[in-house]
Amino acid sequence: MKTITEQNLPLESVMAQEPEKSSIKHLESILQLEGAQAKLVGVDGQEIPIPESVYQILHQAVHALALGKVISVVIQDRELTTQKAADILKVSRPYLIKLLDQGEIPCIRVGTHRRVRFDDLMKYKEERDTKRREGIKQFTQFLEAEGFYDDESSELDR
User: Fold this and answer.
1) End-to-end CA distance of the chain
2) How open is the CA angle 93-96-102, to the nearest 5 degrees?
3) pTM of the prediction?
4) What percent of the chain shows pLDDT beyond 70?
């Protein structure tokens, strides 16, 4: 894996190779067991308890690899610059500034600069995504009610 850059870009993506797949499936089944705390055993035999936060990351990564997905880890500061926050939301920086000025996303002032807490940004993103999904659902229902959208048949299928 590559080291993290100053811009907090993702580390190199990882995908399970064919020879690793059976080991990953086995590891996934072990991680799903509840009860005793997981431990890491060093080459010298020393047992080191795995903290819950690290365990959750490991569990999610192994599960995704077992499903054949690609994993990338992105390390974020607790407070983001407006550019980094805009990049995460996939919006322009001026649009993010507008959201901050309207109070849609809380921000912290550091001198003349704004900082956005990662947790606040993720809360906004989750709410925005939920509203989008609901809007699409309502629009689809409207189209179905008006006869513009029909699951059973389509003019294009003929």
Assistant:
1) 51
2) 145
3) 0.54
4) 85
